[in-house]
Design goal:
The chain is an alpha+beta fold and about 100 residues long. It is about 40% helix and about 25% strand. It has three helices and four strands.
Length: about 100
């Protein structure tokens, strides 16, 4: 597997941390850690340079050139990709993609 350089913007990392904190506040500490670990593992998985990802269905994000990948059917990673770099810009609930 050939990986690209991965850059996670602060806003995306903050969103992942907020969701993990919410899960932890419900008393599910191990689940919160697993969620965050799974999210970052998924980022590593999509950094494979042999794959190209689809443009977002949301017209505003598509015009900018963002690409989207669904994570666990509830969340979406919004990112920009080049041959050498993958920049994660947003981590949002999938229902916010129109």
């Amino acid at each position: 597997m050939v990986k690209r350089l991965v850059v996670v913007k602060e806003s995306a990392a903050h969103s992942i941390a907020e969701i993990a904190w919410y899960i932890e506040s419900k008393g599910l500490v191990a689940t919160a850690e697993k969620f965050a670990d799974d999210a970052y593992s998924f980022i590593e998985k999509i950094s494979d340079s042999r794959r190209n990802h689809a443009i977002c269905r949301d017209t505003e994000r598509a015009q900018i050139g963002y690409k989207c990948v669904t994570f666990k059917k509830k969340y979406t990673f919004v990112f920009l990709e080049t041959d050498t770099e993958l920049m994660i810009c947003e981590f949002i609930p999938s229902k916010n993609i129109h």
